[in-house]
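ok so I'm stuck.
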Amino acid sequence: MRKKQTIISLVIAVILVIAVGYFIRQDLGNAKNIDIKAETQTEEEVAVAGADNVDEGKLPNADAPVPDLDREFSIPDIYGREIIENSAAQYNALTEALKKDPTLRNEWLQLALLRNAVQDYEGAEEIWIYVTLRWPLDHVAYGNLGNLYLDFIQNYEKAEKNLVLALERNPSALQYTENLYNLYVHRLGQPEKALRVLLELIKTLPDEVFFPLKTAEHYRDTGKVESAKEFFTLSKTVALKKGQQNVIDYADAELAKLK
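replied:
not stuck anymore, here's the structure
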């Protein structure tokens, strides 16, 4: 089963590397600031505003040590020949490009995806940390580190720190909220932190229905019926503005159960 999951991971990574441009080119400058700080966060880690105006030569840690581009990239024989050849070719192309120009942020992110896919978690971590040092506004690297620490390395302190930093930089990336919520509720047993994040995000992005809906479900699951009703109703209001009938129907069904 583990081998099958690994094969699927590498296939997905190859696909992502081909299509990754959309994900890693999201406009950081348009992300709203949000003040949700992990207890481990320091002042130096606070997001810098105005990504579009950042001078590459003046970035913090612009001289950070470049990750090892000669690191072994080992693809197990359990993969099919086509997958092995395609993955190796992509990996080699990325490393050659980065040896010529180590300022290629997108290529670093693609390389980390491939390392992570073959379970080289240390190698992926090395790259993502480098990206956060070199491009401190980059939410993708922080989010990937958070996922790495949450699901694979299982260092929950680092998972919280990096997911919070990712969310601060791009609160509209809903997966960061979902992962941070799961960390607080299911791994750390700190539902009050999860709720605080959701309530802050409702204020930050009032037109995003995900946050009041998630908050309503949180209250429902913790037995706070009146609060659940309040936020399912708010979810309907937000969904109505955006024509999201499926959300309205779901909220109505949940409200009916709570009466």
